[in-house]
Design a protein that fits this description.
This protein has 77 residues and is of the alpha+beta class. The protein has 3 helices and 2 strands; from the N terminus they run βαααβ. Helix 1 packs across helix 3 and helix 2 crosses helix 3.
Length: 77
Amino acid sequence: MKIEIRGAEKLSFRERQVVVLKETGNSSESIAKKLGLTSSTVATLFNRARNKGYEVVIVIPGNTLGLYGPEEEEGGS
């Protein structure tokens, strides 16, 4: 599984860092510690990024979710 951030070109480098870490489940406190920022700076960067608009897309290859049985593959009969 991987994530794709659409609209990332609108974000600053720091905003992208915060968005990736936040969208993968990290808390503001852990992000602040990893990036050497305060929690309030992390919150500001995340809010700024959200206001600029971006979209997170989760890409899941093949039959990872088990939606298809072993006999039927995607697009098969």
